[in-house]
Amino acid sequence: MNESPALIVGGGPVGLSLALGLARQGVRSTLFEAKAEPDPHSRALGIMPRTLEIFRSWGIYDRFLAEGVLLTRVNVWIAGQTKPAAQIGLGAFARLSAVPGVLVLPQDRTEALLLEAVKAGGLTETMVGHQALSFEQDGNGVSLRVSSPDGAVQTYRGRYLVGCDGAHSMVRKSLGWELVGKTYPTRVMLADVRLRDERDQLPWPRLAPVRNLALAALRYQPECWRIISTLEQGETEQTALENSAIDRRVSLLFGPGTYEHLWSNVFQIHCRTSPHFRHGSVLIAGDAAHINSPAGGQGMNSGIQDVHNLAWKLARILAGAETEPLLASYQVERRAAVINNVDRYTDFLTRFGLFAPSLVQKAFGALVRNGPRLGLISFFAPKIGMLDADYRNSPIVSGIGAWVGRRAPDGDLIAPDGSSLRLSDLAGPQPVLLLFDDGRLPGWDVARVAQSFAGIHDLKIVPLLSSQAAKRTDAYCDASSKGSLWNSWKVAGGLAALIRPDGFVGWTGHRPFPLELERGVRRALGA
Ligand SMILES: Cc1cc2nc3c(=O)[nH]c(=O)nc-3n(C[C@H](O)[C@H](O)[C@H](O)COP(=O)(O)OP(=O)(O)OC[C@H]3O[C@@H](n4cnc5c(N)ncnc54)[C@H](O)[C@@H]3O)c2cc1C
What we know:
eight-stranded mixed β-sheet; 16 helices; D-Amino Acid Oxidase, Chain A, domain 2; alpha/beta; Glutaredoxin; FAD/NAD(P)-binding domain; 26 strands; 27% strand
């Protein structure tokens, strides 16, 4: 029988990201993808800063940057006008993260780049054209029946099975779970068109001011545009896809001219989540576990963030860490992040930006236009960039302080030897214990701390400059931000913080006692 530590069903962006995340942790996996050929459609167009941070930690950020367009400001144009209606700077991202914007790249290219990295990683067996049929789990793992391209059915065995098999997930349905939530009453038409955009001279995103119709276009590649539209009164799913309906929308957005129709469809939009993300040794992630409105562009991104959360936990469990708390934390953390962050935000944008009556849409538009002046962009940047997940209620997160359970604030730190460290470069694939103030904790020194964690072989212990010296030299200071990391951590010295392999703060303590520190760190890592 074929055996693997992790079986992954589905080779979309989420399955591929899981394979890559596991490989970065040194874990082998086998991935089954039913389709024989890659999906050529553009689908998700935006990669958010948090996902780009993940790609950066996997060493593939530069490859993505070279292919996509990094948006650091957005000028919103109304068709026919000569000046942008709104100029939205995304500089807030540079103050929060090592990645300063949103990357525009069609999903087929995202998948191709992820697959390239998975293959280069050398730890994933990729079984294309193989459809997973059913599975059974027992005390030692999972048996998966798979049909191969020649029709033969084989059984594969894994310690864990992860269903990344999309909205109609066989894995989720076999566990008896439905996606629960709501379907919006109105449908949305998406169309991709190719047209001459005069060497980047046609500005975007573009909106067309039409009563009772939300109509916008984004450029996702030179000469390739995505049209997003609600349906007009009296339009049906069929008539909205007729050539005349698409002609009208293209002409409203771009004026008269020729274009090539690449693809179009009318979609129902949902906001739905599975009641559970895990049963025993079987887990689900991405669209298999939750689906959202495309408004805000967080669907694919949240799936990639699911598996970034899961990969390090599976790796530690396979290396002997405690199974229960780590696997339970996956469901608690990610389900809450989807419901509290992704659902609320995309639902808000959908109701007020897409489907609201004209008057409300106008008011919403005015708010967006005036957003930069009112400071709304800085305020909403963590939400837009998906940097705001909060895992405080997780069973493995403990300690005190504002950052517990949140993504560690990024910035430069100064080591005692004066060298500069970027915080986001420290965590992953290993966990990091930051000892602010040179690690001068009561009754401890760094060597003693290291000794107490001898069993956690990969824990990096990083002492940082003392508080007084830090204040004198402006250390911990992120050059691009007004505040300093020292201020954002709100420490007066003596802080210890455990940064998990996914960059989240698993525990913090202020001048902790030895036992407190050891307990917090072990709990965060299931050690
Ligand atoms: C038209 C369109 C526009 C979109 N726009 C956006 C956007 O702007 N922003 C955004 O964030 N998201 C967008 N999305 C959503 C985004 O595409 C999904 O969130 C994303 O693809 C989810 O990735 P996934 O890997 O979870 O699932 P999928 O991409 O659905 O991948 C699942 C994979 O599993 C395979 N599979 C299924 N069953 C089996 C089986 N039994 N055995 C083996 N393989 C199997 C499938 O063939 C598929 O390749 C859009 C989607 C569509 C359709």
